[in-house]
Amino acid sequence: MYSEELTNKQDTSAITINETFESIETSSKSPGLEDISDICKKNIIYVELIIGFVTIFKAAIGTGILFSPKAFANSGYVSGTFLIIFYWFINVISIFTLLKCTNNMNYSYSEIATLAMGIPGRIMADLAITTTEISFTIVYISFITDNIQDIIAGIYNCSNNYMNYKPALITFIQLVLYIPLLCIDRVQSLGLIMILANICLIIGILSIIIYSSIELSNNILNGKSHLIPLYTNPNNAAGFIGIAAFLWVCAPVVLSYYNSLETLKSKLLFKWVYLFSIFLVLIFTLIFTFISTFAYGTNVFSPIILNLPFTVPAIIVKLLYILSVVFSLPLLLFPVKEIVKNYIIYILRYFNNKILKLSNNHNIEISNNNNDNNNDNNNNKHSINDYELSYKQVSSSISTIDFDKDENRLTLTNSNRNNLTILDRLKKVLLHCSIKMNKSTNNKVKSMEDNNKRIVHIYSSLIMILVSIFCTTMGYSFRNSLTNLVNIVGGVFCVPLNTILPSLFYLFIFKNKLNLGVVVFHSLIILIGILTSIHVIWYSIINWNVTSENMCSLINSNKTIYF
């Protein structure tokens, strides 16, 4: 999912490929190594674009594709095809809208929201990301529980004693894995888990295509065919709208990777790479959906993985797919943890008076009018050398700090609104932090910073433990309504994040530069998103059910069980 790539952005500044080759060039003086460095620099852009292609393709192919065949069969293949293409088109427009909002300034999704609407916009964006990730997690937990239950029932020949076997145990035992992983601070520590999740996902998707193709071929050879309607009534089509929106949620992933590119040429070419890769994903989704739908017809289950037979290889495939989802869950919640950590840091800075709201282009000369009792002979004005280390230690609370040692001046620049009592505010912070001209005080400041880091880690981990318990509880509650859950998640959470907010931010950022046609167009996109959410909520409430399709339903389809 897209969350995995979003979390990868956190440490992209640590070391880049370009920096690696720059170090090679500076450390090597021989002509041969310099030539190698030049060749590498010329080819690095293509490496970045290839990685971008793989990133987008993998981010857009997830668990949502497993629910499309059932919805496709219910809505009709013409209606279903139209809805898939329509929301794909809306997604592409939204992605390019976001890329224009970032304007080569490497703004994240939340920073774009802040640029557009200030603090309320950032809160709105953070809330959209958080709710989307949490809702995806709930879907995944329900998916895991249902599939493990079906595997157990299939192994025991659908015995009544093993039908819906201990759902609470299967659901909540997952916390044993999720809680320790969510307490890890760096997503890079989960690198091996990412690789395993991707491998299991690829094997699972390809295996489902193979099984569906075999089923379809057997039907054709035996003269059997499933009649899928061209279209159905709008009520049935509404059941596909949320799933269609669920399929294309990858805006934060694309934006994150776009911002990681360092050259303008790379960014320009990446837009074409994105368009090509997402088009291939569209073709792959349509092929997968058509094959699966016509292979099983109206007997297709949601998710399609339940249609696999009870053979040992098929059960292994299901287990691999379950593992891919299990390994992906901690990655889904890492963006939520980063957002939580940011807000904890804001709260700590507020209560420690570390945030200075300074105006643009104000230069402040620092003078110390408070003499220490033991240093009466010292000048009131101290050299900036005495304060430099201490200021650097609290520089995280000041947006820009420039040291002018020659003139003994400290230049502070900030884009905040308040321009009053700047010197008094700075003195208050210095006094509060006990910043003096001695080593012991510097150690105290460092100790305070280390303590704040521990507080952030502890509280963010505790909050994520509560979030994981909440997601697990909700996943257990909705385990028998998985299809409805996916539909409502797509319409209520995915549509705002991927459709409504990008156009809304664009209208706010460029409000003084847009003509009437552009304003009407993006207003129409917002309206489509709002109507989609309303329609999906209405459909889900009217058609909500608590019946769960399972592997044992295959027996009613006259399929033989092999072990």
Automatic annotation (TrEMBL):
Pfam families: Aa_trans. It is a multi-pass membrane protein. Residues 52-541 form the Amino acid transporter transmembrane domain. Keywords: Membrane, Transmembrane, Transmembrane helix. One of its GO terms (cellular component) is vacuolar membrane. The keyword Transport does not apply. It comes from the Eukaryota. The chain crosses the membrane at residues 44-67, 79-102, 123-145, 165-184, 191-214, 237-260, 272-295, 315-334, 456-476, 488-509, 516-541. It is found in: Membrane. This is Transmembrane amino acid transporter protein, putative. GO terms for molecular function: L-amino acid transmembrane transporter activity. The lineage of its organism: Eukaryota, Sar, Alveolata, Apicomplexa, Conoidasida.
